[in-house]
Amino acid sequence: MRRLLPVTDLTTPAAAADREWTLDELADAYAYPDGGLPWLRANMVSTLDGAAQHDGRSQGISCPADMRIFGTLRGLADAVVVGAETVRQEGYRPARAREAFAARREAAGQGPAPAIAVVSASLDLDFSLPLFVSPLVPTLVLTGAAAPPDRVRAAREAGAEVLVAGDGAGVDPARAVGELAARGLTRLLTEGGPRLLGQFVAAGVLDELCLTLSPLLTAGGAQRIAGGPAVPVPERFALVSLLEETGFLFTRYGKI
Ligand SMILES: NC(=O)c1ccc[n+]([C@@H]2O[C@H](COP(=O)([O-])OP(=O)(O)OC[C@H]3O[C@@H](n4cnc5c(N)ncnc54)[C@H](OP(=O)(O)O)[C@@H]3O)[C@@H](O)[C@H]2O)c1
Fold first, then answer.
1. Residues whose beta carbon lies within 6 Å of some atom of ligand 1
2. Of 119, 125, 132, which is best to mutate to test ligand 1, by the most ligand atoms within 8 angstroms of its C-beta?
3. Number of the ligand 1 atom closest to the C-alpha atom of 124
4. Is residue 92 over pLDDT 60?
5. What is the spatial distance between Cα 38 and Cα 182, in angstroms, rounded to a whole number?
6. When you count CB atoms within 10 A of the terminal residue's CB, does the N or C end of the chain come out lower?
C-alpha cells in the first residue's frame, strides 16, 4: 500500500513506499479526531462506474486491502451503524475483539469490540442469529416509536437493546446519532447501506466518508453508495488522505 496524499508525507520515503502497512499504522492513519465528538464516519466501496454492489453484495467489488481498512475502522469505532437490509443481505455477524486493537481500545475507554447498531422500522430481522444472541457487546436496534411491539419484544428477548430514535415508524438520523452519543457511543461508523447513508447525508450529520474506489466497471442497475432524494444543495467534502494498493484507491474525505 502507498500513501499518495497528503503529499507532505512523501518527503518521508517510508511513507511513500509501496509496502504492507501494519494494522497499527492503519489505525493511526484513520484515528478519530480528539475533539468534536460525536463523529459519524461512513465506510463504503464503489466501482469506477458508481456501483455499490455486485450480485447483491459488496464483497465482489472489494479487495484484501479494503477489508483490512474495513477491519481497522471497526477496530476504532464505538458503534457500527448499519441498515437492516445490509444486515439481511450480507449476513451480518457480531464484531470480533481483535488483539491488534485491544490496547488502543482500552486506552480510549472502549469495550473489546464495537456494538453493531441495526437501523430498522419493521424489525423484520432474524433475532435468533448470532448477531443478536451471542455478540461480545449487546447489539443495538434503532427504531421508531411505532415499531411493531411483538418485534420489539422479540429483539429484547434475544438480548438486543432497543433504542427509539423516531416518533413514527422510522428513525430520525440525527436523533439516532444523539441516542448513541447519549450512551457514550461517540466514535460512530456507518457501513451503509445506500438507503441509510442517503438519509445521514440528507440530515447533514455525516462528518467523514472513507470511500474505496474499486478499479472495476460493472454497468447494470446497481445502487450508488447513497440513495434517496437528492439534497437541495450538495455537501462539500475535502480530501484528507489517499492510499493506493493494486489500483484500488482508499479515499478519506472530511466535511468542510
Ligand atoms: N458498497 C458498499 O460499501 C455497501 C455498503 C453496505 C451495503 N451495501 C449493499 O447495499 C445493499 C443494501 O443496502 P440498501 O440501501 O438496500 O439498504 P440499507 O440501507 O442497508 O437498509 C435499508 C433498511 O434499513 C432500514 N432503515 C433505513 N432507514 C431507516 C430509517 N430512517 N428508519 C428506520 N429504518 C430504516 C429499513 O429496514 P426495515 O426494512 O427492516 O424497516 C430499510 O429497509 C446490499 O446489496 C449491500 O450489499 C454496499
1. 44-45, 52-53, 56-58, 83-86, 89-90, 119-122, 124, 170-171, 191-196, 199, 223, 225, 227
2. 119
3. 40
4. yes
5. 10
6. C
CA neighbor of 160 nearest in space, from 99, 106, 87? 87
CB atoms within 10 A of CB 88: 14
Report the pLDDT averaged over residues 223-243: 96
Q: 227 CA distance to ligand 1 centroid (A)? A: 10
Q: What percent of the chain has pLDDT over 70?
A: 96
* Distance between CA atoms of residues 191 and 87, nearest Å: 10
DSSP alpha helix (H) spans, 141-193: 149-158, 173-182
Q: Classify 142 in phi/psi space as left (phi over 0), alpha (psi -120 to 50) or beta.
A: beta
Fill in the amino acid letter for 219.
Answer: A
Ligand 1 center–CA 64 separation, angstroms: 23
Q: Provide the sign of the torsion angle of the four alpha carbons 84, 86, 92, 94, taken in this order.
A: negative
Report field, pTM of the whole predicted structure over 0.85: yes
Place of cell 499504522: 25
Mean pLDDT for the stretch of residues 119-138 = 97
CA of 198 relative to ligand 1 center, distance in Å: 10
251 CA from centroid of ligand 1 (Å): 22
Output the CA 212–ligand 1 centroid distance in Å: 18
Closest by Cα among 126, 125, 88, 131 to 113: 131
pLDDT for residue 9:
54
Task: Please name the amino acid found at residue 135.
Answer: P
